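Internal tracking record. Fields below are filled automatically when a chain is submitted to the structure queue. Please do not edit lines marked as system-generated. If the sequence contains nonstandard residues, flag them in the REMARKS field before resubmitting.
Queue: standard
Priority: normal
Entity type: single polypeptide chain
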Amino acid sequence: MEVVRVLHMNGGMGEASYANNSLVQKKVISMTKPITEEAIINLCYSNSFSTSIVMADLGCSSGPNTLLVVSELIKVVDVVCRKLGNRLPEYLVYLNDLPGNDFNTIFKSLPSFHESLRGQMGNGFGPCFFTGVPGSFYGRLFPSNSLHFVHSSYSLQWLSKVPEGLVNNKGNIYMARTSPPSVLEAYKEQFQKDFSLFLKCRSEELVAGGRMVLTILGRRSDDPSSKDGCYIWELLAMALNHMVSEGLIEEEKMDSFNIPQYTPSPSEIRFELLKEGSFIINQLVVSQVKWTDANYETNTNDDHDHFDGDDDGYSVAKCMRAVAEPLLVSHFGEAIIDQVFHRYRQIIADRITEENTNFINVIVSVTKRG
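SYSTEM-GENERATED OUTPUT FOLLOWS
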């Protein structure tokens, strides 16, 4: 699997699009807002920029979530600069994702974004310029010492490639409780290589005193095969294995498919940051969102004690389809996709009425050393 070529969220604005199935991701951004705002406020007080502020959103995807953080950054900078009596800066925003991302949908939304911002803030805020930057963030993307703020949400769990040495992971599509230790170690090593390279590249691109806030789908446990990070994929593997047993999918096809993802623990994130050495860790926290938040437009204080298993199962399956469908299509073809997610929906519906199912988020806020 060539990850750079096939990894992207479902584009457009259709029923299975990421734009219409990303409420979980929206809630995570909302939950992280206080950490992001604190980083931006501290950036303003540090005088790391003068006439312009340059921001990069890495793994921006497409849809309504893409410009949420940009909007908040502009509002916070505006308030702080007015309070300090400073000149309002211009904004240069780099939107980065892999080449298969639906950048066209983002660009089409920019006029309404500017209009909405003017409606909230008037015409006084500084000009805002957008640039799309297709490419892998596991490499250099920007000039040296050019960025003031880097943001990434629910992107860095994706690896640059499927780890090598997974031939013994039969019946699984990711790390699982039945995966042999060699598979767990292969995933961990690939994450370490990728994340250390990511940090090295960003350390070269950020100015001294620049800020970075990363939200990564992760786990609380030190066990990489724990349910914290693996369960959602185990249930998808169950749906695929049912189809293998019925002769609808070739067993060889199933055994050669592995998800290029790693859900790290806070200790693993801290270790890599300390090893790279270019950043001061300001905050490192863990939060969680319910799987069922895929079915609710909520604020961070809402809770859902009543579940409609079938309805919630449908929404969670659609959320995962928006994320995983391109990977599945590239390996299995399009013909089986509807049936895979129909079965997946039923399996999820059964589990969420009986178990406490959550996505775990690891959020880290750092400052580039001077």
